[in-house]
Amino acid sequence: MGAVLLLNASYEPLSIIPQRRAMSLIMRGRVDAATDDVVTIHGASTALHIPRVVRLRRYINVPRRGARWSRQAVLQRDDFRCIYCGIEAGAKQRGQILGRRDFTVDHLIPRSKGGKNTWGNTACACPVCNNRKGGRTPHEAGMTLLWEPKTPRVDYLVASGDIPASWKIYLEVK
Ligand SMILES: [Zn+2]
After folding, report:
1. Ligand 1 geometric centre to CA of 119 (Å)
2. Do residues 49 and 85 share a domain?
3. What is the full DSSP assignment across 50-107?
4. Ligand 1: distance of its center to the CA of 150 in Å?
5. Which of 46, 59, 77, 161 has the most neighbouring CB atoms within 10 Å?
6. Distance between CA 75 and CA 20 in Å, rounded?
7. Could you tell me if 3 and 18 are in contact, meaning their C-beta atoms sit under 8 angstroms apart?
8. Beta bridge partners of 55
9. Which residue has the higher pLDDT, 11 or 170?
10. Is residue 111 assigned to a domain?
């Protein structure tokens, strides 16, 4: 909850920064609020409203770096939703409530067939679909993808916990 999404002047996400840094950028007139969603911090006599998304007034040129791949980051990118059947964490499957921990990272092309740990080759899958697919490709297993796995724009690892709703429109995959 303590983090702020920093956007370039072009609205491209740059990084996730601590609130203190966001506040300092606001005070120095370097950024503007890019959302109505604010976090209120109560001081001794005043309350500060810090936007959860801020945007630089001047464009800065940064070389694009790819987001780091990790299992956790894939699950976050897919919002703990199965790419095959669409079931989400919190829903019931075979009489059990699915928790986030029940989801696994599926390799579309299985590792046993040379599939790599890349954003495009991995997606979130529920236990039932994961089991059904086994060591096959989706095509071999007769399963279809509900969306195409893509490389996210920013590093999901930096965002610990839940991603605020106000960030999501800016974090859409390219
Ligand atoms: Zn599924």
Report:
1. 19
2. no
3. EESEEEESS-------PPPP-HHHHHHHTTTB-TTT--BTTSEETTEEPPGGG-EEEE
4. 19
5. 77
6. 29
7. yes
8. 7, 32
9. 11
10. yes
**Residues 16, 54 within the same domain:** yes
In a domain, 174, yes or no: no
Residues 82 and 132 in one domain: yes
Which range marks the domain in which residue 126 is found?
Answer: 71-141
pLDDT tens-digit readout, 151-173 = 876 655 455 556 777 887 777 64
In whole angstroms, give the CA distance from residue 2 to residue 130: 35
Is the domain of 48 the same as that of 92? Answer: no
Burial class (CB in 10 A: 0-12, 13-18, 19+), 133: buried
Q: Cα of 93 to ligand 1 centre, how many Å?
A: 9
Cα–ligand 1 centroid distance for 50 (angstroms): 39
Residues 124 and 75 in one domain: yes
Domain count for the chain, please give it. Answer: 2
What dihedral angle (degrees, nearest 10) is formed by the CA atoms of 170, 53, 17, 6? 60
Dist. CA 156–CA 77, nearest whole Å: 7
